[in-house]
């Protein structure tokens, strides 16, 4: 990332630029990723090609790239051995910048594959079932993105986000069909700040309600829960007032 590798990979992947392998001896190592260093295994093979150290030591070197105090020692070793193996100084400096930058973020090929599969699956779901996909994302809250960002993305995709309603909101985010046939996402009861888990469970269990008195008798809400519902303007409750 420090070396802008994602952009370089995408440009090469889509044919906007020709892959750059830095040196013909690196092409077998970097061909599958269009000349961009992505995986730990590639870093190990580059270390081995540059220094002849063997893959065992190369594995140790790539793991130590994330330790700033070790970088000068590794750099000195790489520059000295690469010169001995016939690489020109300018190329060594260029390759070292790539390797040193890789220490800030990198992963093994197996790790990349484990991410790639759910990434493609998620992209397909988001494209063909955006309401269902985002409702699931909001419910399970993986924590990588704040919920307001997910809600903004839903609106950007034309998926309405419906307010909390004691008649229809569940313990999870739900997909509801609107009068025009489109789909919206209904906010979930756990988003009602100030309510207890037991109160939310009773709301979900006793839906629907016929009146405010019916709601009170079956849910037994505390005053603060009524106040929380009033703050969010829950239409399924206050339409009886």
From TrEMBL:
GO terms of biological process kind: DNA replication
Designated name of the protein: Error-prone DNA polymerase
PANTHER family named among the record's database cross-references: DNA POLYMERASE III SUBUNIT ALPHA, ERROR-PRONE DNA POLYMERASE
GO MF annotation list: 3'-5' exonuclease activity
Domain DNA polymerase III alpha subunit finger: 1-72
Domain DNA polymerase helix-hairpin-helix motif stretches: 158-234
Pfam families per the UniProt record, alphabetical: DNA_pol3_finger, HHH_6
Regions crossing the membrane: none
Source domain of life: Bacteria
């Amino acid at each position: 990332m420090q070396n802008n590798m994602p952009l370089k990979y995408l440009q090469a992947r889509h044919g906007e630029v020709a892959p750059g392998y830095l040196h013909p001896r690196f092409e077998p190592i970097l061909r599958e990723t269009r000349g961009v260093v992505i995986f730990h295994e590639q870093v190990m093979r580059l270390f081995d090609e540059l220094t002849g150290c063997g893959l065992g030591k190369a594995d140790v070197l790539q793991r130590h790239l994330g330790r700033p105090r070790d970088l000068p020692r590794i750099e000195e070793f790489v520059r000295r051995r690469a010169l001995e193996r016939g690489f020109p100084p300018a190329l060594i400096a260029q390759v070292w910048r790539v390797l040193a930058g890789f220490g800030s973020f990198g992963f093994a090929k197996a790790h990349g594959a484990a991410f790639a599969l759910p990434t493609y699956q998620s992209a397909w779901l988001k494209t063909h079932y955006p309401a269902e996909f985002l409702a699931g994302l909001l419910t399970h809250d993986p924590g990588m993105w704040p919920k307001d960002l997910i809600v903004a993305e839903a609106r950007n995709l034309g998926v309405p986000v419906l307010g909390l309603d004691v008649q229809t909101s569940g313990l999870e985010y739900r997909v509801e069909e609107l009068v025009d046939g489109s789909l919206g996402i209904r906010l979930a009861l756990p988003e009602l700040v100030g309510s207890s888990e037991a109160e939310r469970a009773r709301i979900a269990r006793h839906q629907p309600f016929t009146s405010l008195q019916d709601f009170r008798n079956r849910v037994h809400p505390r005053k603060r829960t009524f106040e929380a519902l009033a703050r969010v303007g829950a239409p399924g409750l206050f339409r009886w007032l």
